[in-house]
Each structure stands twice: as C-alpha cells, then as structure tokens.
Write a structure and sequence with these properties.
The longest helix has 27 residues, at 297-323. α5 links the parallel β3 and β4 (140-145). The protein contains 13 helices and 13 strands. The chain folds into two domains: 10-45 and 299-390, Aspartate Aminotransferase, domain 1; 65-295, Aspartate Aminotransferase, domain 2. It has helices spanning 12-22, 47-59, 72-83, 100-114, 128-137, 155-164, 187-198, 217-230, 264-278, 285-294, 297-323, 349-359, 379-390; strands spanning 29-30, 93-99, 119-124, 140-145, 169-174, 203-208, 234-239, 251-257, 326-327, 330-331, 342-344, 361-362, 368-370. With 391 residues, it is an alpha/beta fold. The mean pLDDT is 97. The chain has a seven-stranded mixed β-sheet, sandwiched between helices. Strands 1-12 form a two-stranded parallel sheet. Strands 9-10 form a two-stranded antiparallel sheet. Bound molecules: 4'-deoxy-4'-aminopyridoxal-5'-phosphate (PMP). 4'-deoxy-4'-aminopyridoxal-5'-phosphate (PMP) binds at residues 34, 100-102, 105, 127, 174, 179, 207, 209, 239, 241, 247, 252.
C-alpha cells in the first residue's frame, strides 16, 4: 500500500538550505531560513539559556514523565509576558506547553475543528505551514490578500472578512512580525480589528511566534491583547523558539480564552486529549530552560537584554537597507516600516535565480528575505547584487 503514495514536493526552503551549504563561494549570503543571526552571521545560544541549562544540569533530578500539558510552571510564568501582568481577562485564560509554535498552531486548529469550526480565513501570503496544517487537520481554508495597494496591511479587507464570516468560522491572524511580509497592523488598526471581532461570532486564532523581535515585548503583543480584551473566546498559539533562540528545542504554548472561567476545565481536557493522541507530551528541556530564566530575576533581565539587542540589530539592518532607497522597481524604504525577521522583495523568479546563480545570494522563491541574514560584512554586496539584477 505504501508504494501507492504519491511523492510530495520537497520543502522549498529546506532544499534552499542544502543548495546554500553546497555552494563553495566564500561571499555567499543566506537570506533563506528564518533564524536570527548576529553581525558575524552566527545564531548563538542565548547566554541566559546557557546559564539556565547549566542550572538544569545541576538540579534536575528526574526525567520522569510530565503530562500532555507539559511544564505547567513554564506556562504560568510565560503568560504575563504574553498578555500583560494585569489583564482583566487573565482569569479566563489557561495554557499548555506544546512542541514549538508549530505544535501550538496544530493544536489550536485541531481543537477549533473539534469545537465545530469548519472554515478558517487566512491572509496571504502567510507562513506556508499554516495552509499545510489547515489542510491536514481537515479545515477548509479561505484566503484573503494581507497587503494593500499602498504596501501596508489591508485592514479594510480583514475587517470585511470578520464582519461577513458566519458562526462556525475562524480567522487566523499573525500577532506581530508577519511572516513572510513583515507588514503588521498598526495600533489603530488593531483597535478596529478587535472591535470587528467583538461584533462578530467568529473565533480569533492568533499566532504569536516573534514576540519581542518587532518593536518591543509589550508592543508586539498589543494586537493580541486588544482582541483578547474584546472577545469571549480566542486561541493564541505562541512560540519561544525565536525570542529565546531555542529553534530546535521546540518550545511553544497554546493559550485559550474561555467565555466563562467554569468552561476552562472542559476545554483544557479536550486540548489534553488531542495532545495525548498527537505527541503525548511535549519535549521538556527547552521549556524547562525558559522556566528557569523566568523564575530568576537576574536571568530574566539577561534574556530581556539579549532580546533587546536582537531587536535593535534587526531594526538597524532595516534602516541601512532603507537608506538605499529605490533600486529599480524595489522600494527598500519599506523595510524600515516593516517588522521582524522577514520582508518580501518584489523580484521576479528570474531575478531571484540570478541573485543565487550569479551573486551567491540565497532567498526564498517568493522573494522573502531574512533581514537578519544581512550584516556589516555583506549588506553592501547584497545591495550591489540587487542593483545588478534589477538594472
Ligand atoms: N508561526 C509562524 C508565523 C512562524 O513563522 C513560525 C516559524 N517559522 C511558527 C509559527 C512556528 O514556530 P516554531 O519553530 O516554534 O514551531
């Protein structure tokens, strides 16, 4: 039977990583995979994580099973960073640890389906895995265009979609640092989106995978918080893999907002059952390290400082790119108005291929670049390559 499975096309980004690795040119530039890089092009382990791991090595006295909900204390300590210290709705929120943000998205969509959601509206372009998980979970996807003609987020469209959606439908939004466009809603636009959700019966599903990499920890969560304050129910998929640099250790959480406190136990029992049937329980180590950080004031400050440094470097690369202004059809000033690791360059397939073949610049076929792949040693070369392929 297995021989009848049709071959699936390989993940384009993973294929790009292989091509990059095989390229012998010493001045090659990797703008593909979505990880933060320092000015020397590395993706080091946070010092706060190293310290937490050292402490875990010393103090952890058992590897015995936890449960489908994972490290409960990790989730309890994380929540105030996501929702603020004194959110009025905090009593109606409960969460559980998941294997990365991907596990959280998967669990959110699975529980939405179980609760009777049939269709999910999603802005495009989006993180490609959103569509894959939606289809795998058996939910119908309806897409709308995320970016307007002015190059900003098209807020009128999302508000129209929310207003028109029927009960039994959900709308999936990125909380900040939109992947792949970097184009986020403004605070005033989030107010309008929250009001639209309040007036509708659709379920908000919010994906917050880059908190702290945009404009600030609180600022990056402000859209999520506005919606949570306005609606009876919501799901928030969260990743610590970027803001704690834990990528391969798979640290995430799913939070649920219930209309009434008394409904939380039943909802959480469904999340537990779904998690049990999927991965049984999440991997412990990464969340345990984050818990050690968040339970120690000194380590928490160290983490906040490291995160602030990342954020400042991303902003500085964006500002340097914006200084290049207009290059052929490309308006690089837009990069300074966008947030997080990613932006999209309006390049043709041929231009993207020429960047790779003639200039050793590797980026996703969509034109998405990881801004953090740029640094003082390669930014001038990248701009020269852009001029060359667009002239
Ligand atoms: N959501 C979005 C929008 C993402 O970009 C990503 C990571 N690329 C995730 C979720 C999942 O992150 P994780 O690596 O924690 O699974």
């Amino acid at each position: 039977m297995l021989d009848q499975l049709p071959a699936q096309s390989p993940d384009a980004l993973l294929a790009l990583i292989k091509m990059y690795a095989a390229d012998p040119r010493s001045d090659k530039i990797d703008l593909g995979v979505g990880v933060y890089r320092t000015d020397d092009g590395s993706t080091p382990v946070f010092a706060a994580i190293k310290a937490a791991e050292a402490s875990l090595l010393e103090t952890q006295d058992s590897k015995s099973y936890l449960g489908p909900e994972g490290d409960v204390e990790f989730v309890r300590l994380l929540a105030p960073y996501v929702f603020g210290a004194d959110a009025a709705y905090s009593g109606r929120v409960e969460g559980m640890q998941t294997p990365g943000g991907t596990g959280a998205v998967r669990l959110a969509l699975a529980v939405a389906r179980k609760a009777g959601v049939t269709k999910v509206h999603m802005g495009v372009p989006s993180w490609p895995n959103h569509a894959q998980i939606l289809s795998d979970v058996g939910l119908e996807t309806s897409s709308f265009i995320h970016v307007g003609a002015d190059g900003g987020a098209d807020v009128e469209t999302v508000i129209r979609i929310i207003a028109a959606a029927a009960p039994g439908e959900a709308v999936l939004l990125h909380g900040c640092c939109h992947n792949p466009t970097g184009i986020d809603y403004s605070p005033a636009q989030w107010d309008r989106i929250a009001a639209a959700f309040a007036d509708s019966a659709v379920l908000p599903i919010l994906d917050l995978a880059y908190q702290g990499l945009g404009t600030g920890l609180d600022e990056d969560a402000s859209g999520v918080r506005k919606i949570m304050s306005a609606v009876p129910e919501a799901l928030v998929a969260y990743s610590c893999d970027k803001n704690f640099g834990m990528y391969r250790d798979r640290v995430g959480a799913l939070f649920v907002l219930a209309e009434k406190v008394g409904q939380l136990d039943a909802i959480m029992s469904n999340l537990n059952a779904l998690a049990r049937a999927s991965w049984s329980m999440p991997p412990d180590h990464g969340a345990a390290a984050v818990r050690v950080i968040l339970s120690d004031a000194g380590l928490t400050q160290l983490w906040l400082d490291e995160l602030a440094e990342m954020r400042a470097r991303i902003a500085s690369v964006r500002a340097q790119m914006a200084e290049a202004g207009q290059i052929g059809p490309l308006d690089l000033t837009a990069l300074a108005r966008e947030n997080g690791l990613f932006s999209m360059l309006a390049l043709t397939k041929d231009q993207i291929a020429s960047l790779r073949e003639d200039h050793a610049v590797y980026m996703a076929g969509s034109g998405r670049i990881n801004v953090a792949g740029l640094h003082s040693g390669n930014i001038a070369n990248f701009i020269a390559a852009l001029k060359s392929v667009t002239s």
